[in-house]
Structures are given as structure tokens and as C-alpha cells.
Automatic annotation (TrEMBL):
Gene3D superfamilies: Heterotetrameric sarcosine oxidase (3.30.70.1520), Probable tRNA modification gtpase trme, domain 1 (3.30.1360.120). It comes from Streptomyces ferrugineus. It comes from the Bacteria. This is Sarcosine oxidase subunit gamma. Pfam families: SoxG. InterPro entries: SoxG, TrmE/GcvT-like. SUPFAM superfamilies: Folate-binding domain (SSF103025).
Length: 209
């Protein structure tokens, strides 16, 4: 779907603005390279669909086929296929993340749900996505996250609801680089991004022997 725009004297102007567009340069400038490297970027406008359905139902089977992978059935687990990733939120609740068009994904999931009990709601505007990556990414998060993020306890493919600083987030570890994606509510994204930029600043300085 094309980006919604309005016409002005200077031509078409995009209507959507990401919650962190104003911090793009600060996030780029905060990046650190090398063995203690860490980088912070925003992935705006990712499709997010909240899904509720009985995991033992025929409707859940249809949704599995629509997504191309079974919905995760355990706390902290994710499954992925093509552009879609399903994140476990509760025994009968998931967040579907996708690079595909939000309208198309929502329509396909609603068709798969059919008339069975459950719900499919496009919540893409509810959150934004921050990506924190690099050798020091885990140490940055550990400054304000109560989870045990050591690889023995939390690794690629795991996603849970937690806090970073005072901000509630959905935290997903994508790979073992490590790369993490954080999903804060849009209204808290500015605070979280500034908190992370501050937490990253230590790694711009020489390591103390």
C-alpha cells in the first residue's frame, strides 16, 4: 500500500511520521564501533497485529497455515516464516510482526479466523521498534533491564515483556550478534531512546584497565 500523502505547494507530503524521526541523527551519532560497539536505530511502521484465538481450535490451525509457521505455544517463544514473526504474549494471545502491508496481513488473519471466537486487531500505530545491536548491546540493556540476559538464559528467538529503565517493552533477541528489538508504546519511545543513548555513551570512551 502506498504511503498516505497530502498535496502541498511543494508537492506530496507524507502523513506518517515515526515517533523517533526527530532523534534519527542523535541515534546515528551515538553508534560505537569496534569490540565494544553498539548501535541504535528505529525501524518505523512495522506491521503489528494482535491476535487472540484458542490454540487448540481449528481456527488456530488455519492461522498457522496463513502465517506459514505454527503459533508459538510457550512463554517467551517466537516462530517465523517469510515476512512474519509470531510472538507469544499469553496462552491465547500473540503479536504478529510483519514486513508485509498491515491491511493485507490483518485481512488474511481475519479470513483465517473466520467466525470462530477470537480477535484480530491492527495495532501497528501502538508501538514503534528500536533495534539495539553490537557486542556491547547486552551490557547496555543490563543497565536497566531486570531480566537475566546471559546466553544461558535468554537467546535468539526469545521474546518477553519486561522493562528497560522505567519503560515497559516487549524485548526480542533476534540473533547472537547480539541484536535486540524493543517495542515500546509510541508515547514512551522518546524517553526510551534517550535512555539508551545515555547508556551507550560509556562505550565511546576507552576501556578502563
Amino acid at each position: 500500500m502506498a504511503e498516505p500523502t497530502i498535496e502541498s505547494g511543494a508537492g506530496p507530503v507524507a502523513l506518517r511520521t515515526s515517533p523517533l524521526a526527530h532523534l534519527e541523527e542523535r541515534m546515528r551519532a551515538a553508534a560505537v564501533t569496534g569490540a565494544r560497539g553498539v548501535a541504535l536505530t528505529e525501524w518505523p511502521f512495522i506491521t503489528m497485529v494482535n491476535l487472540r484465538v484458542d490454540p487448540a481450535s481449528v481456527a488456530a490451525d488455519r492461522i498457522d497455515k496463513t502465517l506459514g509457521a505454527p503459533l508459538p505455544r510457550q512463554c517467551g517463544h517466537t516462530t517465523a516464516s517469510g515476512p512474519h514473526t509470531a510472538v507469544w504474549l499469553g496462552p491465547d494471545e500473540w503479536l504478529v510482526l510483519s514486513q508485509a502491508d498491515s491491511g493485507a496481513v490483518t485481512a488474511e488473519l481475519r479470513e483465517a479466523l473466520g467466525g470462530d471466537p477470537g480477535s484480530v486487531v491492527d495495532v501497528s500505530a501502538n508501538r514503534t521498534t528500536l533495534e539495539l545491536s553490537g557486542p556491547a548491546a547486552r551490557q547496555v540493556l543490563e543497565k536497566g533491564c531486570p531480566l537475566d540476559l546471559h546466553p544461558r538464559a535468554f537467546g535468539p528467538g526469545r521474546a518477553v515483556s519486561t522493562t528497560v529503565g522505567p519503560v515497559a517493552v516487549l524485548l526480542w533477541q533476534v540473533d547472537d550478534a547480539p541484536t535486540y528489538r524493543l517495542f515500546p508504546r509510541s508515547s514512551f519511545a522518546d524517553y526510551l531512546a534517550r535512555w539508551l543513548i545515555d547508556a551507550m555513551s560509556e562505550y565511546r570512551r576507552p576501556e578502563v584497565p
